[in-house]
Design goal:
Radius of gyration: 17 Å
Number of strands: 0
Structural class: mainly alpha
Largest sheet: none
Strand content: under 5%
Distance between the termini: 41 Å
Number of helices: 2
């Protein structure tokens, strides 16, 4: 039997700022960036 999923702790203060900075500064290879851009285009078309 599966165990229940525990709640994820909420980040606050400096920890939260560090995570946001890391998320906003991620860089991808040209190939992966192209793939992500195509995914966004498909997503935008499907939600209309």
């Amino acid at each position: 039997m599966a165990r229940p999923i525990e709640p994820t702790p909420i980040l606050e203060g400096e920890d939260a700022k560090k995570v946001l900075e890391l998320m906003n500064s991620v860089t991808y290879s040209e190939e992966k960036q192209k793939f992500l851009d195509e995914c966004r285009q498909v997503y935008r078309k499907t939600i209309k």
